[in-house]
Amino acid sequence: MRYVILGNPIPLQRVRFGGGRCWDEQKKVKVGLQVILDGLHGANPMYSGPLRLEIIFYFKFPQAVSEKKREEMREKGHSNKPDLSNLIKFYEDIATGILYEDDRLISDIIARKRWDDVPRTEFVITEIR
Predict the structure, then answer these.
(1) Distance between CA atoms of 54 and 74, rounded to whole angstroms?
(2) DSSP letter string over 8-23?
(3) What is the pLDDT of residues 29-38, one digit of tens each?
(4) What is the phi/psi pair of residue 23, to 5°?
(5) What is the pTM of this model?
């Protein structure tokens, strides 16, 4: 099934420690995206794995980029921050408990960062048979 989450792709941030406690600064963002993802998934059952994740992160072009330069950027891909691995981990985490029981079920990943006019994250999860 294909899922599209509009908005800038979000990388995972590390849990913070201080004052004898730890906290997740992204908790509210994660919960909001989980609600969106749950709505996209609907009443479908959770995937039971093993799974293949194909995910593309689309980042909005910088404002002062010409149309010619945009085409070049589309072809080359996105090599700026954030790290691809941190992006993947964030979306694996928000899908846990909604699309699958645990992200350990993912055995194959194909991931890309790209430029586009519409920032979003698109991914497809398929069961490997």
Answers:
(1) 18
(2) ------PPEEETTEEE
(3) 889 999 999 9
(4) -150, 160
(5) 0.88
How many residues make up the chain in this entry? 129
Give pLDDT tens digits for 47-98: 987 999 999 999 999 888 888 888 889 888 888 899 999 999 999 999 999 9
Question: Measured at the alpha carbon of residue 51, what is the angle toward residues 47 and 57, in degrees to the nearest 5?
Answer: 100
**For residues 119, 8, 3 and 69, what is the CA-based torsion angle, rounded to 10 degrees?**
30
Q: Which residues contact 60 (CB under 8 A, 6 or more apart)?
A: 8, 115, 116, 117, 118, 119
Within a 13 Å sphere around the CA of 89, how many CA atoms are in the beta-carbon half?
10
| Tokens representing residue 120 in the block | 């979003």
Domain ranges of the chain: 1-15+23-40+80-129
